[in-house]
């Protein structure tokens, strides 16, 4: 083994100076600099919340004319249905009539099927006029929330439906309103009514509290103002479609429309409006068919106890409050 020279012994006695210098790490590998406490820097923007149901038309494809195009599609399909009902009237003597008196199974069948065309018409208007699926016209979830609809049907029966029955009972027992007895062909009236009235009620709500309300709110563009204006406009239009001769009946329909509109805005879909309308329409049908049309205030002609029709307003308010709680859980 060769002995180390003087230079090598001197180098061995020097202290260790560490490795030779290397390149600095890349920016991706550097640890973020510590931020002094209290100086957190600019906050990251919070993600935007979900689009309200009534502003569903204000998407990327929004244009002011699209709701008008959708209304034109709906009107065209309803016009075809109206022509078919006219042909039916010529052949059978029974046509569509929004006046529920006199109550007959043939009149119910033709009228309800005619109005039920509004449902497929709205579902077609969305892809044709807006280029998207029809789910936006049903709820914020993009579909009909069937479990919520089932729960709200029970809520509507315990609130609005019960109050309608109490109003009729008050008019008959406390105001001596006339009870003419059940209508002719009662079994057929009940069978046809129970099958078609819910379908008609659902179609009307999808049209008025769904598409038309969304169109009005979209033109306004502000959530709260749009919801209020849409509620007033659609409630008046729907009530006027059934006639304005009977003031009590007209006001009752306006109240029902406003309650349905409030429930739609609070739950984010048409399920609440469908449940409310279906229950009220079926209860009125059953009472009118069994007791006679004149026994139901707001359904038949003016008479004693007409003011009892407004008792149902209490049930409408209770339904809206309970529907909002159940809709928030979905």
Commentary on this structure:
Pfam families: Rce1-like (PF02517). The chain crosses the membrane at residues 67-87, 107-132, 152-174, 186-203, 224-244, 250-267, 274-292, 304-324. Residues 1-49 are annotated as: Disordered. GO terms for molecular function: endopeptidase activity. This protein has 330 residues and is an all-alpha fold. It has one domain. The chain has 10 helices and no strands. The protein has helices spanning 6-13, 66-92, 105-116, 118-130, 146-173, 186-220, 223-241, 247-267, 271-291, 312-327.
Compact description:
By secondary structure, the protein is mainly α.
Please give the structural blueprint.
Elements: H1 6-13, H2 66-92, H3 105-116, H4 118-130, H5 146-173, H6 186-220, H7 223-241, H8 247-267, H9 271-291, H10 312-327
Helix pairs in contact: 2-3, 2-4, 3-6, 4-6, 5-9, 5-10, 6-7, 6-8, 6-9, 7-8, 8-9, 8-10
Low-confidence stretches are 25-29, 37-41
Order of helices and strands: HHHHHHHHHH
Structural class: mainly alpha
Average pLDDT: 86
Rg over CA atoms = 33 Å
Largest sheet: none
The fraction of residues assigned to DSSP E strands is under 5%
Helix fraction? 55-70%
Features:
about 325 residues, mainly alpha
């Amino acid at each position: 083994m060769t002995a180390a020279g003087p230079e090598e012994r001197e180098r061995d006695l020097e202290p260790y100076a560490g490795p030779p210098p290397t390149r600095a790490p890349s920016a991706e590998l550097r640890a973020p600099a510590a931020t002094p406490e209290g100086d957190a820097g600019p906050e990251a923007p919070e993600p935007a919340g979900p689009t309200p149901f009534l502003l569903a038309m204000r998407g990327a494809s929004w244009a002011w004319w699209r709701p008008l195009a959708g209304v034109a599609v709906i009107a065209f399909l309803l016009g075809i249905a109206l022509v078919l009902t006219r042909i039916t009237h010529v052949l059978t003597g029974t046509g569509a009539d929004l006046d529920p008196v006199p109550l007959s199974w043939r009149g119910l069948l033709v009228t309800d099927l005619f109005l039920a065309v509004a449902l497929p018409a709205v579902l077609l208007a969305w892809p044709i006029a807006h280029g998207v699926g029809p789910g936006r016209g049903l709820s914020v979830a993009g579909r009909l929330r069937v479990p919520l609809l089932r729960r709200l049907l029970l809520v509507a029966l315990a609130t609005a439906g019960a109050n309608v029955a109490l109003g009729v009972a008050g008019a008959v027992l406390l105001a001596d309103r006339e009870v003419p007895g059940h209508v002719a062909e009662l079994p057929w009236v009940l069978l046809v009514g129970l099958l078609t009235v819910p379908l008609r009620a659902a179609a009307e709500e999808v049209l008025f509290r769904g598409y038309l309300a969304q169109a009005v709110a979209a033109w306004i563009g502000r959530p709260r103002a749009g919801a209020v204006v849409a509620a007033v406009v659609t409630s008046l239009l729907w009530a006027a479609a059934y006639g304005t001769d009977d003031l009590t009946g007209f006001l009752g329909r306006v109240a029902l429309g406003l309650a349905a509109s409030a429930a739609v805005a609070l739950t984010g879909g048409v399920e609440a409006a469908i449940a409310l309308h279906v229950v009220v329409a079926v209860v009125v049908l059953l009472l009118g068919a069994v007791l006679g049309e004149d026994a139901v205030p707001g359904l038949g002609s003016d008479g004693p106890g007409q003011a009892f029709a407004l008792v149902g307003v209490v049930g409408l308010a209770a339904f809206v409050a309970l529907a909002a709680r159940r809709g928030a859980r979905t």
